[in-house]
Design goal:
The chain has 442 residues and is of the alpha/beta class. The protein is built from 14 helices and 16 strands. The protein is 32% helix and 22% strand. The longest helix has 17 residues, at 95-111. The chain binds zinc ion.
Length: 442
């Protein structure tokens, strides 16, 4: 066998939108070289009991929000009161403590079967808003954290310039986010070459609240020139829509369309409160939508028109965003369940559509077109889900997305390397790492 070659034999594997049995999976140098269903198990193959899926993509993450889990969920309030607590944590992080927290968070993602994270990164500068000696030190810490956790990262370096739609300056903890203007944002990002083949660079417009309309095209041009993914928070909150309509006389979607920001390389995150025209615009331009259902319900955002977006031509991907939960199975089935709550009807998405959102579509949204399927030539990512846990025993494997949880993931391979074996991360004690990193911040 060639160098770095390996063979797995999956009891069941998700191949081309359905479950195949007794699948011999061969890989070399981080790529699948052969996929053979109905094959006997060779003695040298690693046996994967249960259902083996392609790698999962978590297309929308703010790694530091993991420190808020279980600390901001009680009590009353809105998205805006939660944001105040989130800023308090943002104010405390250093490059060292962020490396520690992000490593633990990405290792939790690895345990949940995530092989790519789309990190929507805006915590750029020191607490007074001054660049570090290396102005990309925080981004470099996130790239290193992904390497330590064994997963790929698309660092979506986020342009964040103002605190309101009408251009009020950044204040308090927000000062860490700002580069002054879009050209200085681009100059900083241009100086960043992420270390490692597990990392790629993308861009983000934080929102229409945080980037003035006349500066959005600079970010769009930067991403277009590099064929890099561009992400943007869109219409998560009605208040943002109202402010945008009042100031610009356009919806956030219309504003982004006028700035040239909508196309198949772009992913709109949330897309919760859309007009019919907004929804049509996203679909007609092939702009993707990243839904973050567990965060959207935690923050009382609402639920976007997921089925109509997909039908209109907007591919759906998934993100755990605030990390109140890191479980892509929960995100995937929530897309269906929230549609049921909206429509009072059952059965909107097939299991294959939900798995595509969690795998291939998420990877594509993060710029990894060669990941998210178990097929020859694709990146060798495997996520095995046990079918003998209290949650999964007795289920129809084809419907595992409706029953499995992150805790049922037993084996994860990313780019050909095992990163989770028998339900444990191969190098990181994840609960201890999380407890230590988060404990230091409170
Ligand atoms: Zn977000």
């Amino acid at each position: 066998m060639p160098v770095n070659a390996a063979r797995y034999h999956a009891e069941l594997a998700w191949i081309g939108d359905r479950v195949a049995r007794d699948v011999l999976i061969e890989l070399a140098d981080g790529e699948f070289t052969g996929i053979t269903p109905g094959a006997p198990a060779p003695p040298d193959a690693t046996r994967l009991a249960g259902l083996t899926l392609p790698g999962l993509a978590n297309a929308h993450s703010h790694a530091f929000h993991r420190a808020l889990r279980g600390r901001t969920h009680a009590g009353k309030g809105t998205f805006w009161t939660w944001r105040g607590q989130m800023y308090a944590v943002a104010a405390r992080l250093t490059p060292e403590s962020y490396l520690e927290l992000a490593t633990a968070t990405y290792a939790e993602m690895a345990l949940a079967g995530v092989t790519t994270v789309g990190e929507f990164h805006y915590l750029h500068h020191d607490p007074d808003g001054r660049p570090y000696a290396d102005p990309n030190e925080m981004g470099a810490a996130l790239v290193e954290a992904a390497r330590l956790a064994g997963i790929r990262i698309t660092l979506l370096d986020t342009c964040y310039l103002t605190s309101t739609v009408d251009g009020k300056p950044l204040d308090g903890a927000q000062r860490r986010f700002g580069d002054g203007d879009a050209r200085r944002w681009a100059a900083r990002v241009e100086g960043f070459a992420p270390a490692g083949r597990h990392a790629r660079l993308g861009a983000a417009v934080h929102s229409v609240r945080a980037v003035p309309a006349d500066q959005i095209p600079d970010v769009v041009e930067w991403a277009a020139a590099r064929d890099a993914p561009l992400h943007v928070h869109l219409s998560e909150q009605r208040k943002e829509n109202a402010a945008c309509l009042a100031y610009h006389r356009r919806t956030p979607t219309e504003l982004l369309a006028d700035a040239g920001a909508l196309d198949p390389r772009t992913t709109a995150v949330h897309a919760t409160h859309l007009t019919d025209g907004d929804r049509t615009e996203l679909g007609d331009t092939g702009t993707g939508t990243c839904l973050c259902p567990t965060t959207e319900r935690d923050l009382a955002d609402g639920a976007g028109p997921a089925r109509a977006l997909l039908d209109g031509g907007s591919p759906l991907s998934l993100g755990s965003d605030s990390h109140a939960v890191i479980d892509l199975f929960e995100e995937a089935r929530a897309v269906e369940m929230h549609e049921r709550l909206r429509s009072e009807q059952r059965g909107h998405f097939s299991a294959a559509e939900l798995i595509r959102a969690a795998t291939a579509a998420g990877h594509a949204a993060c710029g990894w077109a060669d990941a998210g399927a178990i097929a020859a030539g694709q990146r060798a990512d495997l996520v095995t889900v046990r079918l003998d846990s209290p949650r999964t025993a007795g289920i129809d494997p084809a419907a595992a997305v409706y029953a499995a949880t992150a805790a049922d993931v037993t084996h994860v391979v990313c780019d050909g390397r095992p990163i989770v074996v028998d339900g444990r991360h191969v190098t990181i004690d994840v609960p201890t790492a999380l407890r230590t990193a988060i404990g230091a911040l409170w």
